[in-house]
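Subject: design request, 351 residues
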């Protein structure tokens, strides 16, 4: 039987069949190239968006942490929210050191940023009073627009008042550029700040200067007492050496009644040297003069008596009225307690 079919040919073997060419035509090549480019562009776009998101997150974090520097017009920075940690700002502004800083900024520009923080009223200075003042002087002296703006690090995050004070003094304390009197003055002014929960100056010394050795904090507390007792009579507090200030403060603490005598002695001084000479003479004098001792002997002896008001025990003696009670007076609002004491005093004075 023939292997051919009715059409006259037999079955084909694989070797008899030529392979079919499947070359990509022009249209197919264009479609494939466009698809490849689209996939590559999409991948690049996704990666770019991922990188942009990471950069934005890093920038926001840096901004929140105060690591982003901005250029701010000088007139937009105010300095009336915090007291400065310098006692004589006028002298600092006219000092040789200020002229040297101005010369550096004039030649090389502002290299170190100031630090500011946001308030409802705008930017407030935290650190960099000398740099800001130098730029203000340069703008006034030259009229150059280069000095119309200041490079600043802005703190946008919420900060407590005590943290603002600590940041303000930290730079100068680390550089050992503040006198004991200036450090004491910061604590005294901070104690008057209603945003610090009416803490005392002695307590604030421990918080403001926590990084200092406890002995140095003890010296600052001595100057707090010295500056508080003598007030404006101590005209040149920065010139008082550590040992002299501490010794005078200790004598004043030991004999509170003699502060008035020292204030009178200081009333006629004109120079820092005269002031310090008087302080040294004050240390050499006895705490009580003979006439004062004689007067003390003629005074009647103090009489002490006690009584109870409810659960409170009251002890009265010369110069002292003590109330012992289970009540926690430190938990009472200071203003309320002050009103109660004022009412107590008014009754004693028959007002």
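Subject: RE: design request

Done. Sequence follows.
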């Amino acid at each position: 039987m023939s292997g051919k079919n009715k059409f006259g040919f037999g079955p084909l073997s694989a070797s008899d069949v030529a392979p079919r060419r499947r070359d990509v035509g022009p249209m197919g090549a264009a479609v494939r190239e466009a698809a490849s480019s689209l996939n590559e562009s999409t991948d690049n776009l996704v990666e770019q968006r991922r990188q942009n998101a990471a950069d934005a997150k890093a920038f926001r974090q840096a901004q929140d942490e105060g690591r982003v520097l901005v250029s701010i017009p000088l007139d937009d920075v105010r300095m009336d929210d915090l007291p400065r940690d310098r006692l004589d700002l006028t002298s600092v502004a006219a000092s040789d050191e200020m002229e040297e800083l101005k010369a550096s900024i004039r030649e090389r520009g502002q290299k170190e940023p100031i630090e500011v923080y946001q308030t409802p009223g705008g930017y407030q200075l935290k650190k960099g009073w000398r740099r800001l003042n130098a730029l203000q002087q340069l703008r006034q002296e030259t009229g150059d627009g280069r000095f119309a703006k200041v490079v600043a690090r802005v703190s946008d995050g919420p900060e407590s008042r005590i943290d603002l004070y600590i940041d303000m003094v930290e730079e100068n304390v680390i550089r050992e550029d503040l006198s004991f009197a200036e450090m004491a003055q910061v604590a005294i002014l901070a104690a008057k700040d209603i945003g610090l929960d009416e803490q005392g100056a002695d307590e604030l010394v421990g918080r403001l200067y926590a990084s200092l050795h406890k002995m140095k904090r003890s010296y600052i507390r001595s100057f707090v007492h010295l500056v508080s007792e003598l007030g404006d009579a101590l005209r040149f507090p920065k010139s008082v050496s550590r040992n002299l200030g501490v010794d005078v403060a200790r004598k004043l603490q030991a004999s509170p009644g003699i502060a008035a005598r020292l204030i009178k002695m200081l009333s006629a001084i004109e120079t820092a040297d005269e002031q310090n000479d008087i302080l040294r003479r004050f240390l050499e004098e006895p705490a009580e003069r003979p006439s004062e001792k004689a007067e003390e002997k003629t005074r009647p002896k103090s009489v002490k008596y006690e009584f109870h008001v409810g659960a409170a025990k009251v002890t009265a003696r010369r110069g002292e009225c003590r109330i012992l009670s289970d009540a926690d007076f430190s938990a009472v609002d200071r203003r309320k307690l002050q009103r109660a004491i004022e009412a107590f005093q008014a009754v004693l004075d028959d007002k």
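The domain at 59-159 is CATH 3.90.1530.10 (Conserved hypothetical protein from pyrococcus furiosus pfu- 392566-001, ParB domain).
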